[in-house]
Amino acid sequence: MALNDLKAPIAICTWGFVAANAKAGEELSKGIKALDAAIAGVSVEEDNIKNTTVGKGGAPDREGNVTLDACVMDSNGDCGSVVCVENITNVAALAKRVMTETPHVMLAGSGAEEFAYSQGFESDNLLTDSSKKAWEEWLKSPEYKPLINIENHDTIGMLCIDKDGDIAGACTTSGLSYKMKGRVGDSPIIGSGLFIDNDIGGAVGTGMGEEIMKTVGSFLIVELMRNGMSPQQACEEAVQRITRKNDHFNDFQIAYIAINKSGDVGSYCIHKGFTYMKYQNGKNENIHSDHYVKS
Ligand code: SD4
Question: Is any ligand 1 atom within 6 A of the Cβ of residue 87?
């Protein structure tokens, strides 16, 4: 496909993160490559202390520690990831440093944090007063029950196609609120929360990470597209791999977005309420996803 037909650049991201997606779109329009545009985009939410599911201000685990997970994947197939990181806000950028500055793909916990300082990242207290208050409130009757579609925001996963037609992505989260200490979800797991194949397309997931991991959701979507499905069909099949095996899917949300090499976009989720952003031709739209549960 000629690049002109593709109408690149394109940025898409999970949920209604208008400013984050606009930032990625602006960066792409200036000619910034897909991975750096995606990292610039998601960092808007990592820095946003009002967002209680990503970066600084994220909800803590049940012991009061804010631990962040993130990964990035580039168009050449390289990737980097950090899991269970404390005191560092911009963990997607840190995941890129793991990719470019170490011989590894994934760093965890204190090792990731020490690496961040060696790279010039600064320590920050990620637990804001309001997240602390909400956690203290939760402690009064602690029940672990991830809620569906809270305030239309959650983990931010972003996929970008740059002016050269190359695809890359980033995914960053504080994980599920009041998770067990040490719990890691799908978001930093290459193939689960995010997967890119620059010949085919990319996918990202959000929602109950345990279910996404069990089905290696993002990798699955890219492979389904490789085998001829559209991004929409592939997202639907990946959601149904989960609903077919679970009789309790009413209790959790899963949502995927995907893009192929031609710039076609798809999205599907279990429950009504998931939206995603799409930036193309200078237009940044919030789009409602189709969903599996119809009633
Ligand atoms: C996780 N998938 O840690 C993330 C959280 C999320 O909507 O996306 N919630 O499991």
Answer: no
